[in-house]
Amino acid sequence: xxxxxxxxCIKSASTAVQAKWYKKLTIKFRxxxxxxxxxxxxxxxxxxxxxxxxxxxxxxxxxxxxxKAAKRAWVKKELQQWYAKRNNIALYRxxxxxxxxxxxxxxEWTVFDDRVRDLASDIAxxxxxxxxxxxxxxxxxxxxxxxxxxxxxxxxPHTFHxxxxxxxxxxxxxxxxxxxxxxxxxxxDLKSSHNDFVDLIVDCEVALxxxxxxxxSVIANTLNSVLKGEEGTSDGKPSARNQxxxxxxxxxxxxxxxxxxAIKADxxxxxxxxxxxxxxxxxxxxITENDVQLLKKDPTVRFQSECKTVxxxxxxxxxxxxxxxxxxxxxxxxxxxxxxxxxxxxxPIRPVVSGIGSPAHSLARVVGxxxxxxxxxxxxxxxxxxxxxxxxxxxxxxxKNSILVSFDVVNLFTSVPREEAVLLAKKVLHNAKTPEIxxxxxxxxxxxxxxxxxxxxxxxxxFFWAPPEAPGAPSKGVNEL
Length: 481
Fold this sequence. Notes:
By secondary structure, the protein is mainly alpha-helical. It has three domains: about 5-155, no CATH class; about 170-260, no CATH class; about 295-345 and about 355-465, no CATH class. The chain is built from 16 helices and eight strands. The chain starts with a helix and ends in a 15-residue tail after the last strand. Residues about 470-475 and about 475-480 have low confidence and may be disordered.
């Protein structure tokens, strides 16, 4: 319990002392939580920590069992003490939080609390790495080899591919590899111009015009430190942002010199680096093996004209606003690219045809939504994601010794005959007693965007291809048929 004298001591302390205590207790709280995790794992896997020293001169089964039970009781008692310490610290932190938020301005509190949390997170991360090594060492010492793999799977439940898979002969520097590991979506700190800082200062002056001088001083000091960071450190060394951009420029130069390409892997979040010519060869192998036909010219303009004609004839299904939305102003042909399957031998590519910006992309999206609205169609055997699959499986009691099997269809959508798919969609609309005019208009729209089956590759000239029986743009609901 929090004693009355301790509460009075906290309330009578100065703000600086309260802030010091809050920082100390926040760090201690995070460390205690890791100690609780360590002891909980020891109990879960019957591990004896090094601080537990119990021996018996007797080697009888009863003595061995008694020693094990005593060690486990020791760890439980230790865990109870850690929980008690955590609860007491939580009470003190809450009291300090109440006092500090009452005495500090919200800007001061936010800045202070963010710095304390960052410091506590860094210390807790180092502590967690140490605890993790301790658990692995205890596992090797005290558990038989048959259970080592099981415990390792619990402590490291997933085995992922490397963040960067380099299939080329080019060797990157450590700084370059570290930056590439951040992924293709990493956004580096952009260089700020003088006008950006002028705008920021003006915005701050407007926002703080009613605040007192002390708050303005805090903001001014923060802006001053940011400006100094932009200009570099005082000892003449470049700032961290400038160093990062130097590494980025080095990577760009390496990619141009060695003719490399960086692509996201098909599975996981890995970045695959390979020779550009190797990537082209893998894509051409897929195109050649799937009887893709070479077109003499780009059919995008002709297909755009067909879409406009069909949409202009629609009277019921689409509103005037939707008619304007489904027409792409500057359409481009669907773009073909490949994603390496690093989990398979020879690392083939998974073909992807991106229809974004193509004439039928927006049209297919709206038509798919309209089809579901008018037909009330719900795919009987389709699921949204793995979470929905888990939900369904919880209500099923599988037979004894049964296994879960997943079948993968090769080139599923490109193998669907377009004419039969449109006729099946029309049948679903009739079964739902959809008005004839709506049924005919939806069928006309489905027939139009289903005829779009060209794609563009950027590594061959001419670069327009047409896979046989390939649907054009994606359409949720229709695809589930």
